[in-house]
Amino acid sequence: MRRVSTPDDRVVTVGAGANPLVGTLLDAGYHDVAAVDVAPAALDALRADLGDRADLVEYVVGDVRSLVLDRPADVWHDRATFHFLSDPADRARYAERAAAAVRTGGHLVIATFAPDGPTTCSGLSVERHDARSLATAFAGCFELVHTERSIHRTPAGAEQPFTHAVLRRTLR
Ligand SMILES: C[S@@+](CC[C@H](N)C(=O)[O-])C[C@H]1O[C@@H](n2cnc3c(N)ncnc32)[C@H](O)[C@@H]1O
Fold this sequence. Notes:
The chain is an alpha/beta fold. It has helices spanning 21-27, 40-50, 88-101, 131-137, and strands at residues 10-14, 32-37, 57-61, 73-79, 102-113, 120-121, 124-125, 142-153, 159-169. The strands form two sheets. A seven-stranded mixed beta sheet has the order 3-2-1-4-5-9-8, sandwiched between helices.
């Protein structure tokens, strides 16, 4: 698919954990990155991983279901957080917060376990998604522009099928 983001974009990654994505974005020249996580320890681990680049990133401790950001985002990224929301009301709250955060024309880049993926993640049960259920979850505010499937192999060798989707924020 065509590139949906440039290094001048403001990227917000929710449920950031200590994923290497933030470091990869800094390597690529991104300079307006916010990492959101409900767990302060997860952001402490990310800071530690980034080392002397830690202060280049904004850290927000908060629940994505009630997240309020001070500036619009060009890209909202989520790998393996939305799938923890098994209550439809929580998914609706998440979609509302993402819609409020992303500027018109901006993008939501999301990855969840696929329908044939694991039923738990980090010991918690998950709601698995295909492209259709992701498009439905964000319908009205975002339109699906791209989807892919991948197989993630864990350090222990287990295979985890993921659904990836890119959705564009439609006119408010
Ligand atoms: C499975 S980890 C994924 C971490 C990272 N995105 C990755 O792909 O490696 C899920 C992360 O989401 C965070 N999280 C779970 N529920 C959340 C919520 N409601 N709001 C914000 N963060 C949440 C957890 O603390 C955890 O760091």
